[in-house]
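Quiz preparation item.
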């Protein structure tokens, strides 16, 4: 008689199914209301299988939040390098960069549904999760943008004393403005309106950081 082999819980595809399902369920139901039963059902596995991969709901939530942030960070890094590595027309390059950065939100709908859940439930999410999320996600984008702005300033195209602050200002004037109005893509705006918001934001940024003209 042949014995059945145990389920290979450590397989990467099983874990991926769980994290993908968890991201959808957390984004839909929020941290507090989401259940491990619902996540297991969405992943097509048993709850026992979920617990073989993740200790508890807190660990699973942190995992999917951080992995999603890493995926978005990698995509934004490519956008930065594509638009800001070589500057031809500073205003247009910043506009194109910001528009692509805004568009990236729609490429990760499950992740940004999770972002909405985090912001809505911040008071009910365990502090260690929030701390790790902030470090990996919303408060680090300007740190990766800062070196590009510093190099642009070194060419005399901007007058920047603190590149990190300048990067934060550019983000607030463009991407953050659109994300707040669309609730991270949940309430789409016409593309013309997005372009107008980004263009106004970039021009305000350039006025603030225009190099001093010596008479």
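Solution:
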């Amino acid at each position: 008689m042949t014995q059945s082999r145990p389920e290979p819980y450590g397989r990467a595809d099983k874990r991926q199914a769980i994290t993908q399902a968890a991201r959808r369920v957390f984004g839909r139901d929020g941290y507090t209301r989401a259940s491990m039963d619902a996540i297991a059902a969405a992943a097509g596995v048993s709850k026992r299988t979920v617990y073989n991969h993740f200790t508890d709901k807190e660990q699973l939530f942190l995992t999917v939040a951080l992995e999603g942030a890493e995926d978005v960070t990698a995509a934004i890094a490519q956008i930065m390098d594509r638009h800001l590595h070589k500057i031809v027309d500073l205003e247009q390059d910043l506009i194109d960069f910001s528009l692509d950065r805004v568009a990236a939100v729609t490429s990760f709908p499950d992740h940004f549904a999770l972002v909405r859940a985090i912001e809505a439930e911040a008071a009910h999410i365990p502090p260690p999760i929030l701390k790790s999320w902030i470090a990996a996600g919303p408060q680090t984008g300007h740190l990766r943008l800062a070196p590009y702005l510093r190099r642009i300033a070194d060419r005399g195209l901007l007058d920047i004393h603190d590149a990190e602050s300048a990067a934060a200002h550019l983000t607030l004037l463009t991407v953050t403005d659109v994300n707040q109005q669309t609730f991270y893509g949940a309430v789409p705006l016409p593309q013309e309106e997005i372009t107008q918001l980004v263009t106004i934001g970039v021009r305000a940024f350039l006025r603030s950081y225009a190099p001093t003209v010596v008479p």
